[in-house]
Amino acid sequence: MPDISVTPKKALIVLGCPEAPAQQALAFHVTHNLKTRGSEVLIAGNPSVINLLKVSDPEKHYITNTMVLEKCIAEFVEKKRDCDLCVVFAHNDAAIAYAATMRHLLPERRLVVIVFGKDPGPLADEINFPCEKIVDKAVHNPMQLKAKINEVFGWAVSRT
Amino acid sequence: MGCIENLKYEMILPLGASFKECREYAEKNFSEVWYVDPGYKLFDEYIIGLPPIALGIEEGKKIIFPYTKPCHGTYLLRIEDPDEVERVRKTARKKK
Hints:
By secondary structure, chain A is an alpha/beta fold. Chain A has six helices and six strands. Chain A is globular. The two termini of chain A are 27 Å apart. A six-stranded antiparallel β-sheet of chain B has the order 1-7-6-5-2-8, sandwiched between helices.
């Protein structure tokens, strides 16, 4: 596994279903922090979640590179794309399946799975593959989960 | 559902089934079961899931497989396609 303290050159953020609002805020937060540290960030998700981000960031201060999830998975399978860090947001069973898929496709890369929602514990227990897990009961309010993310990524002193 | 949506499929398990439930259903209800890894191409789409992903074969011509979408969870689908069945038999790992 790569050194946690090293800023990734290329990061992939995989977003799940957008029904939990905390995801969108935290996607901006993670993207912002990675980009300000020099990472190139690609965000993958379904069309709804990508459009939510694009509408929220019309001048593309945060969100520059996006891709529909199926196409993104295809490019990783076909080895047309690579990354040093993959962050998966997961608040349902489907997202855990996507995280497992990314683990399989990127066996040597850093994988961080952010498990959230009303009852994240059982969901986190489904993860039986190597990764770093950040788990918190967050649906609407992202603050506690944000603090945990900052701690894991070493952004704890950040004011963002 | 992408191109699989355009195929004639039957939904075996209702929406909301977990990926694990889909695997267990395929393993328990079909005498011929094969395993693949995430990223395996089936019906021109890359299959998502926790490895090993169980595929059932029925009547020698129908494939039962999990199909995951971010907002809906995992569907367990059945599609009749003898050619694809043969391809699975040649490229997947058989349940022992």
